[in-house]
Every structure is written in structure tokens, then in C-alpha cells.
Amino acid sequence: MKLPQSERSVGSNGVLALLVVVSIVLMTMYAREGERGALHRMRSGVQSATAPVAAAGTWATTPLRAVGDWTNGLTVSRSEIDRLRSDNDALRKAVADLEEARLENERLKTLVGFIDARDLENESVGARVIARPTNSWEAVITIDRGTADGVDNGMPVLGPQGLLGQTVEVTEHSARVRLIADQRSGVAAMIQATRAEGVVWGSLAGSLRMDYVSRETTVVPGDLVLTSGMGGVYPKGLLIGEVTEIDTPENALFPRIAVRPSARLDGIEEVIVLVGANSAGDVGGGE
Question: Which long-range contacts (CB under 8 A, 24 or more apart) does 260-263 make?
Fold first, then answer.
């Protein structure tokens, strides 16, 4: 038989009131009794009994709490990730710019040192390469100096290790430079050791050869080849390269002499133009 709702409510309220009274009595007794009181001893006993269980629970949940701490560190906002990526890209660019500046400084120091070491009488101007050969049958580069800088047709152009070529087409702010490896290039030259003269020609393959050297002249691999100054195109004494191979056919008038250029022709970035030199057409003919 079910009790009426009002009777159940009265019974529940009575139990709650009884529990409140008991709690107040126990708290009052606990506060008034000493450390050796019954309630204090009961509390210590309960703590001692439950201590091993609490320790085991702490040990068991330690890995889970560690994982939770780690995953909390992963909750980085999208904006923070984007900011970190942007900072990283900026730092990488700054490092690349600094390295590029260092390498350029080293190249320019080498180039200036090359000019100073030879104590050239001609005035010179530095230039950057802004275009490389566009096809396989000509060796022509473009530099960022022109008539506004005193550059004219036929002026010698040098690299850090030696002669590169001469200007062949000049505008106000740029000039095309025909390299000595171009098939239309020719440079009046001499063997440094013997002073024997000849002409160094370029080729379609980009290699150099020296012609018109007397058969009576002794030429050996390693001999340096310099400009002779003949014809007034290039100043005397500029380094062209060194002899790598000599072939003297029985019925040929002159030996075939292969020359390796001293200057790097395929990756040059900065050059020197001897603007004080006489402008003239090169030995190999004009454009």
C-alpha cells in the first residue's frame, strides 16, 4: 500500500533534520575534544586505512595525467601556428640574404684584388651580369652598364681570374659582352714563357685554341697564355688561360694548341669593364 505523498515528505524531512543535528553534534565534539579524543583517533584510523588505496590510485593515473598535460600543449591555435610559420620563413630569408651578401662580398673582393694586383692603367667600372647566353651557338652575356657609365663598344671585360671578352653592343644602361669562347671571338695573344705570338679563337663548342704560333717555338702544357696587346683591342698582359694540349700535324704550318680559359665563363656574376681602354672591333670581327 502506497503512503500518501505528504507522509513521505514528512518522513524524508525528519531524516534530513536528524542528520543535520547529528553532524552539528559531532563537529562540536570534534572541535572541543583534544588530539587524543575518540573522534580524532577514528579519523586517523580511516586515513591510515585508505592511504594505500589513494597511493595506488595516484600511481595508476599518473600516465593518464601526463598524456593529458602533453595533449594540452598541442592545443595551439591556428593563428599561433601561422605566426610561427611566418616568423620561421622570415628568419630563413634573412639567413639566405646574409649568406648571399657574404658570397657577393667575397667575389667583389677577389675581383678588385685581381685589378689591383695587375696595376692596370685603364679606368674601370664594375657591372653585374643580368642575362646569359640564350642559345648554344653564341657566347654572349649582358651587363647592367652602358654609355651612361662610360661603357662603349669594343671595351675589354674581365672576371676575377682573367679575361672574359669585350663589349659588342652598348645601350644607355646595358651592354652585350662577347666572351672569348664565342666562335666569332679572336684575341691577339702570346705564350708567356717564350713570348711567341698568335691568336686565341673561340669555337662553337666553347673551347679555345691558339693559332699562328711558329712550329719552331717550344710549347708545353701548363704554359700561360696572355694578351699580347697587338691591335690595340686588349691591354697587354691580361691572363687568357693555359695550354692544355699541343698537336703538330706533319704537314701543318702551325701547331694546334688547346687553351683552357682561366676565367669562369659559365657562372660569372660580376665583371670589370676597362672603360679607359681604346674601343675597337675585336680580332674575330664585329657583329
Answer: 260/208, 261/162, 261/163, 261/180, 261/181, 261/208, 262/161, 262/162, 262/163, 263/158, 263/159, 263/160, 263/161, 263/162, 263/163, 263/164, 263/239
Helix (H, G, I), strand (E, B) or coil at 154: coil
Q: What is the pLDDT of residues 111-120, one digit of tens each?
A: 555 555 455 5
**Closest CA relative to residue 177, chosen from 167, 191, 163, 162:** 167
Please tell me the distance from the alpha carbon of residue 169 to that of residue 157, in angstroms, as a whole number: 13
Reported pTM: 0.58
For residue 227, give the C-alpha cell: 694578351
> Under the phi-then-psi rule, with left for phi > 0, alpha for psi from -120 to 50, and beta for the rest, what region is 228?
alpha
Would you tell me the crossing angle of helices 5-32 and 38-74 to the nearest 10 degrees?
100
149-200 confidence digits (pLDDT tens): 999 999 999 988 889 999 999 999 999 999 999 999 999 999 999 999 999 9
3-class SS string, 29-40:
HHHHCCCCCHHH
